[in-house]
Design brief:
Elements (H helix, E strand, L loop, with lengths): L12 E5 L4 H12 L3 E6 L2 H13 L3 E7 L5 H15 L4 E4 L3 E2 L9 H29 L3 E6 L12 H20 L5 E7 L21 H13 L3 H13 L4 E3 L2 H12 L1 H16 L14 E2 L1
Parallel strand pairs: 1-2, 1-4, 2-3, 4-6, 6-7, 7-8
Antiparallel strand pairs: 5-9
């Protein structure tokens, strides 16, 4: 049974996590501009309220908006229960919230690994557990959007812990794209590459001296190629409307994924070159610094 594409968002009930900033905020604003009734959450209450104000300032409609840490299962379940009771089953659920911590294996603590899995993998699972069954029971169909990462596709340097969570979300999405098909619920797996959310200027990476010429060049290259949150949001909304499973926000990730699947030697060479370039920024001394946690 094929899902009818969600070509028009007017009047659709859409739940979005991570709506206080970055891709989440941009997606919430775009969906609202297209007529959706957006329901928003984020762990940061003050910037979430700013998102709500921004949407209402241009005539957009915000239903429920409440600060919740998606890694807190009971809090997510309570929020979802109120949302469903007041507004019914969602037409679309968008898991955008996430955090990022990078570093070499010897610089990452166990807490970093655990927190990444708790937020980036278990967070979306909590939302799926609470909001997808009502969508199934409604019989109206709908759409599930899970934002993974380029690090959920390829072996990027210093991303082992982050990739553990993002590859996990990819696995969940891969199963649900088939499990939910008979309920007319489409699934999109979004794999952003570089997105300039502002955090790129402040993120701390374990073992890296950001004042070195190597890092400065790498950061400038990233900024040059990164898309804006608005561009990423446009790709996400377009992908959902077209019922696409793989959604890319930039062509470089589309290309490297193509190479990975069809020209494995070229992919391996590209990853080795990337790793070699990244490791030039590492000092020769033992790493004592720890990576900062940052919201995507």
């Amino acid at each position: 049974m094929f899902r009818k594409r969600m070509r028009d968002l007017s009047g659709k009930q859409i739940f979005i996590t991570g709506a206080a900033s970055g891709i989440g905020r941009a997606t919430a604003e775009l969906a609202a501009r297209e007529g959706a009734i957006v329901h928003l959450t984020d762990r940061n209450a003050e910037p979430l309220a700013e998102t709500v104000e921004r949407i209402r300032s241009f005539g957009g409609t915000v239903g429920l908006a409440e600060a919740v840490d998606v890694s807190d299962y009971e809090a997510v379940r309570a929020l979802a229960a109120r949302l469903t009771a007041e507004h019914g089953a969602m037409d679309a659920v968008m898991n955008i919230a996430g955090i990022s911590s990078w570093g070499t294996v010897q610089s990452l603590t166990h807490q970093h690994w655990q927190r990444l899995v708790d937020v980036n993998l278990m967070g979306p699972i909590h939302v799926i557990e609470a909001l997808v069954p009502p969508m199934m029971e409604s019989g109206r169909g709908g759409h599930l959007v899970n934002v993974s990462s380029a690090a959920g596709i390829i072996g990027m340097p210093w991303h082992a812990a982050y990739s553990a969570s993002k590859f996990g979300l990819r696995g969940v999405s891969e199963v649900l794209r088939f499990d939910l098909r008979r309920h007319k619920i489409g699934v999109s797996l979004v794999c952003p590459g570089g997105v300039d959310t502002g955090l790129t200027d402040t993120i701390d990476i374990a073992g890296i001296d950001k004042a070195t010429p190597a890092f400065t060049r790498a950061h400038a290259h990233f900024k040059k190629r990164a898309v804006t949150p608005d561009q990423a949001a446009a790709s996400i909304i377009a992908g959902m409307k077209k019922n696409k499973y793989w959604v890319y926000t930039s062509n470089d990730i589309r290309l490297i994924h193509f190479l990975q699947r069809h020209f494995s030697p070229a992919y391996v060479l590209a990853m080795r070159v990337m790793n070699f370039g990244a490791n030039k920024a590492l000092p020769d001394v033992a790493r004592a610094r720890r990576p900062e946690e940052s919201v995507r």
